[in-house]
Protein: Sarcosine oxidase subunit delta
Amino acid sequence: MLLIECPWCGPRAESEFSCGGEADIARPLDTEKLTDREWGDYLFMRTNSRGVHREQWMHTQGCRRWFKVQRDTVSYEIQGYETFDRPLAVMDSNEGTTK
Ligand SMILES: [Zn+2]
Structure:
């Protein structure tokens, strides 16, 4: 189980959070001009990358705020956290994970 550090509440068990998927996906500005394929790509297609990945998490059992996590999808190591008004805070190498 991951130990996720909510930027407002501190470290909590993964079970208190909901993952919102890949971060940094911008909504297209001119949606009327998009083809069905382009709209479908925006809605459904994700990179599903192996390695360092940025994703959104919500502390659903706590403060109910959204934040971003930079995580390695191979080792599950959380490398840092970011709020929507504060840039990425990088963590020490093994902090934030449990084995
Ligand atoms: Zn919280």
Remarks:
- The pocket of zinc ion is lined by residues 6, 8-9, 59, 62-63, 65 (CB under 6 Å).
- The beta strands are 3-6, 10-13, 18-22, 52-58, 66-72, 78-83, 86-90.
